[in-house]
Amino acid sequence: MEDWNAYTMGGSLEMTLPEGAKIPLSSCAKTYKVRDSQGVVWVWMSNETPPCSEKLPYFEHYSRPDLQAISTIHELPYDHSILLENFMDPAHVPISHDRSDFYSKREDAQPLVFETIERSSRGFAGKWSKSRNPTFINFLRFEAPCALQNNHEYIDKTGRKQYVSSLFLCRPIGQGKSMVITRFGTTLKSPVMKFLPKWFFHQNICKVLEQDMGFLSSQNEILMKEMTPVGKMYINLGSCDTWVLEYRKWKDRVGHGMPYYFGHSSISLPNEPALVEQYRAGLDAGISASMPAKGGIADIYASNPINRYSRHVVHCKKCRDSVKGFGFWRNTLVGLAVLAVALAVLASRTQWKVLFLVSAALFLGGQYVCYSALNLVTTNFIRSHRRL
């Protein structure tokens, strides 16, 4: 179609051809059609079927001109289905993400009310709330294989309808690995979203994902080890696990196109696991969620699927730029502090010594702020527990 552009998957030819020979078709680069829709680039993976724009997911709230949104991207060390299942589970939020935002509190954990209003081969939709006669209703929609929305609508004190939306675009990048684009949007006019830098919101979303990471990667290991459908391993409660059960049953019905999957009552695994762990990912991820593990030394970051730098910063231009900027100003301020101390030693008058020493203290304070911000962007969340 005319709206779709060409994208080429490059490769290399590792053989020598005789003079005059044609390049084999198997060595030619594959070209796919792509299209930008609502800020997301979609790839049409079929060369046999023409691209169809009607099959592109459309997210109504993100076309609203008054919607303020924050988008981030993350790579995570567990399976695509576990990633989706986690985002479908509202019951875990007050427990796992206690005090991570303005409304998640452990003491607010409670049974929830769910209602499935739509099922099809393309997914399912429903609504959930905290009571039978709720003030607020949340709407969830799963569009196979990767899109999950959780939307909330309500009337504010002025009589105006407000929208709050969470969108998760989840894609597998290998067995035991996944990637997600998160988008959080609201029509509420908040000056905080305008004045705080993007990296601040990004690190907070990283923190939320890290609070679940140890448990989810361990769950991935258990499923691979037991090789058993999830319905035989876990009890799904109607008061909290309705969407998880819907998703796993959808896998049983129509999820067989996945190269491997865990359904509620069925399972499909490769003969040989694509991911061979050299050490326990769950244990490693658990450690990283309880201490500032960068995966490297000082400001040198090793490639590691559990550290924040590898999972987010390398994929995010805004956070890479902020790391570069904080590093530059930190080094500059340290240099200025050293210079100010040297000038204080050389100064002959007391007032000049005091001025230079005060300046050195301010420079060191500034470098500490840069150092703290740098750690906030690149270092995993340190979990602390509290008693109720």
Automatic annotation (TrEMBL):
InterPro entries: Cholesterol_7-desaturase, PaO
TM region positions: 328-348, 354-377
SUPFAM superfamilies reported in the protein's UniProt record: Bet v1-like
BP GO terms, sorted: protein targeting to chloroplast
GO MF term (any one): chlorophyllide a oxygenase activity
One GO term describing the cellular component: chloroplast
Pfam families named among the record's database cross-references: PaO (PF08417)
Keywords: Membrane, Transit peptide, Transmembrane, Transmembrane helix
Residues in Pheophorbide a oxygenase domain copies: 142-226
Record's keyword annotation contains Nucleotide-binding: no
PANTHER family referenced in this protein's UniProt entry, alphabetically: IRON-SULFUR DOMAIN CONTAINING PROTEIN (PTHR21266), PROTEIN TIC 55, CHLOROPLASTIC (PTHR21266:SF29)
This protein's name: Pheophorbide a oxygenase domain-containing protein
Annotated organism of origin: Asparagus officinalis
